[in-house]
Amino acid sequence: MSQGRDVALSKLLSWSLRHGAEKEGLDITDDGFINVSDLLNHRLFRGKYTLEDIQRVVAENNKQRFYLQTNQDGGILRIRANQGHSIKKITNLDLTPIIDERDFPVIIHGTYWQHWDQIQKEGLSRMNRLHIHFSPGEPSDSQVISGMRQSCQIYIYIDVRKALADSLKFYKSKNNVILSPGNERGYILPQYFSQVVQVSPRKLIG
Q: What predicted TM-score, i.e. pTM, was given to this entire model?
């Protein structure tokens, strides 16, 4: 398969697993899994992609967005997106709670100038997703797989100790993305920003 078709399949998997499953009539579990056979029999995939295509896209995705698992009960192959969901039914993702700031002393949200005015007034919002996304470092750091686009113009560092002390929840996904549902309104307020950095030319802006 060409690289272009692999990219198209990756985008289709992302949309189906994160946002579109219920709209498309796909059975998705509360931990985010869909049977691969159900996907391949669905109109969006049927006759266009094979099991081997899905396995390759999962294996070669450099951000490790997807996770394949064989269900122990029936030996059925299932697939899940590791994060990024907006489907409210998904409440049981395999996430590791972060309870000690020493485990992740650096948590960063990447954003763009067009969003900064609103963020500095209102804070970070999960919007229509289940979580706000962070990375455990800047994109150039070796431990960062996903969680921030390379093109981000602003890095917002979170005061992890203060946020945890005030009962904000943070979790680590399987591909090392840091996730937080925010407060009861789905926000992390500016009072939890430890510093804000303009990426280029690099300088502190908050």
A: 0.83
